[in-house]
Amino acid sequence: MLKINLSHFEAAFLFALFTSVVMGITSKKTDKERLHYGAYCFGYFLVALFAIGWLMRLGHG
Q1: What are the sequence ranges of the domains in the chain?
Q2: Which terminal Cβ of the chain has fewer Cβ within 10 Å, N or C?
Q3: pLDDT of 22 higher than 90
Q4: Which of 15, 22, 52 shows the shortest CA–CA distance to 37?
Q5: Band of the pLDDT at 44, cuts 50, 70, 90?
């Protein structure tokens, strides 16, 4: 059995990537809209990932 060790950032990055792909595919009608919306969602997932990470770091002191 293949064992994969991912850091928290790597796991969150993969979640953001796969979720953005699914949201882009299921939400829009044309390929251009799908690509744009998927990239838009992915960007916002990454912004949220870094923002929440910094808030957690500042909270711990």
Answers
A1: 9-60
A2: N
A3: yes
A4: 22
A5: very high
